[in-house]
Structure formats: structure tokens, C-alpha cells
Amino acid sequence: MLPVVAVFALLVCITRSSTGLPFEQKGFWDFGKEFDVQDLLMMMKDEEDGSAFGEVDPQEQPGCPFGCQCSLRVVQCSDQNLYEIPRDIPHDTRLLDLQGNKITEIRENDFKGLYQLYALVLVNNMISRVHPRAFLPLGRMQKLYLSHNHLPAVPRNLPASLVELRIHDNRIKKVAAGTFSALGTMNCIEMGRNPLQNSGLEPGAFTGLKLNFLRISEAKLTGIPRDLPENLRELHLDQNQIQAIELVDVSQYRDLFRLGLSHNRIRHIEHGSLAYVPNLRELHLDNNRLNKVPSGLAQMKYVQVVYLHSNNISEVGVNDFCPTGFGMKKTFYNGISLFDNPISYWEVQPATFRCVADRNAVHFGNHKK
Ligand SMILES: *[C@@H]1O[C@H](CO)[C@@H](O)[C@H](O)[C@H]1NC(C)=O
């Protein structure tokens, strides 16, 4: 029996799964729960482990801004109807939570002196302007959460220490060349639900990044963007208008583990494309316009999960999923979805799924979930 336990605990940005497929694996973004201050505190503690976190500096106990609660270097000012970033935030603050306010602008000196800040939470505000020097003092900041604001662009001069940026649901139409150029330790960017077209991603937009995780779902992409960071392990481009996958689209991403392309308009996958991503574990192609199983799947040694439901696939060949030679596949499938396709299911030979871990792993009935 081959081990079928997926070992995906690689990334910082993982959260919980949300759909109800029986074999759904953990590790996908949960839109409802973008982050949790408690999780953040745990992460902070883990990463600090044994440092001064939690200690009270006896020399200086500056006041807590009005409307906020301050303890253990965490300043909580969420849902306070604030129109601007409060002044007098203690200089030793590690976590600043300003979510759910009415902040429209980040000014030049708003974060002055906060050189110990680890995480800044600004989600659910009305921020449309960020002063280009506003983030300069934040030399230790690792996590910046700007989702659900009105930003027209990724802010400039992000701190080089940044590891995770979430800027989901803003108004970004363009990512200029060099936007991320100084951010060599960045691991994860979530920038879905922005009105981004392929033409809005300037050549060089992602230069300098060594990302593990990139999500540009719910945008207006018509193709897989070119020149994304080469060492990407997860790429999520669901809910765009992508029509095809061509060799050049995937030829640079040998390390890709997960590729999410659900809810696009893909009709065509160029023959040989999958050979460029030999390490793929999960491929999500459900809710597209495919009329056959992508070629090359059977040659992929590690692929475990393939979503193909809600396409226009009318036939499944006996060698579409599994190799013909014994021992060619290193990990068996533990999830294949084919429901909601015009397949004559009784014509699919049982041997088609000979490299599947167990029969419950094939979701096959001709019905919607
Ligand atoms: C589905 O495939 C059939 C041929 O197999 C084709 O006639 C039909 O137009 C396709 N439907 C869509 C929505 O692409």
C-alpha cells in the first residue's frame, strides 16, 4: 500500500478548506476567515520563542491610544469607528490590529517609531492612499494584511522583512515592474479579487520574489501570467477568464505542488504542458470547458488530486489517469472528481482507476455536488 497522506505542511499562508468534497484536502484559503488575531499571536509566539515577547519594559509604559486595548505588546483597535491611525501607539508594539474601522488614508508618520512591529492588520477599512514613506519605519514587519480596502495599487516601499502580504479585494488594476523587487524573503502573496487583467501585470512585476504561494483568484486574467516567481509551490488562479494552458505558461514552474484553475473557461491544454510540472500533487480544473481528460496525467508520478468536475468531458480512456507500467506512479490518487460531465459512466472501464488509493476517492456520479 502506498502512503497517501499528503505532506503539504510547507507554507506559512495555509488556512482551512471550505468545500464539501469528500477528499478535499486542507490547505486552501477560506474566504470567510482570512486570519485570526489569536492565530497571529500564536505564530508570533512560535517565531519569537523565548524572546522578550510578553515582557513588560519597566522603564517605559506609554499610554494606550484612546479606543484601543493594549497588553503584552498587542494593540487592539478593531471596530472603533476610527477615521485615522491613532497617534501615540507604544513603540514596542508587535501586533497592531486596526481592522474594521473607517480609515481612508495612511499618512507619512502614522507608523513612526514602530520598528518592532511584527504584524499590521488593516483589513476592512476604506484605505485608498498610502504615503510612499509610510512603511519605512517598519523594518521588522513580517505580515501585512490590507484586504478589503480601496487601494488602487500595491503600496510602495514595503519593508524588506515582509513575509506575507494579503491585499485581497481592493481596486488594483496594475502591478508595476519592480513593485516587489526588494522583498527577497516574501513567502506568500494573496491578491485575489482585484480587477487585474494580464495587461495590468507589467513585465517584471514579480521580479525579485521567491514566493511559495501566490493567489490571484477572482480577477480578470485571460491567461496564466508570465514570469511569475520560478520556485512557486502553490499558484491559485481560480475564477478568472483563462481560456487555455500553453506550454510557455507552465514551463518555468518545476516546483509547483498545487495549481488551482477552477472556474475559468479553459477548453484547451496544450499537449505536453503537464510534463513541465512533474512535481504537481493537486490540479484543480473543475468548472471549465474541457472536453477530455488533460493529456499527460498518467505520466505524473506524484499527482494525487485532480478535479475535473463540471466540464464537458464525454469520454474517459482506460489510460487517461494511470500509467501502463507497474511502479511508474509514486503516489496513488486520493481524489478524482468527474461528476457533472456528459460521460457515459457505465462505459468507463474499472481499470481506469487502477492507481487510485481506494474507490471512494473517485467522485463519479452524474450529479452536481
Ligand atoms: C461540449 O462538447 C460537445 C462535443 O463533444 C460540443 O458539441 C458542445 O458544443 C460542447 N459544449 C460546450 C458548452 O462547449
TrEMBL record:
Signal peptide: 1-20
Function: May be involved in collagen fiber assembly.
Keywords annotated in UniProt: Disulfide bond, Extracellular matrix, Glycoprotein, Leucine-rich repeat, Proteoglycan, Repeat, Secreted, Signal
Localization annotation: Secreted, Extracellular space, Extracellular matrix
Name of the encoding gene: bgna
Organism: Clupea harengus (Atlantic herring)
Cross-referenced InterPro entries: Leu-rich_rpt, Leu-rich_rpt_typical-subtyp, LRR_dom_sf, LRRNT, SLRP, SLRP_I_decor/aspor/byglycan
Cysteines joined through disulfide linkages: C64-C70, C68-C77, C322-C355
Record-given protein name: Biglycan
Gene Ontology CC annotations of this record: extracellular space
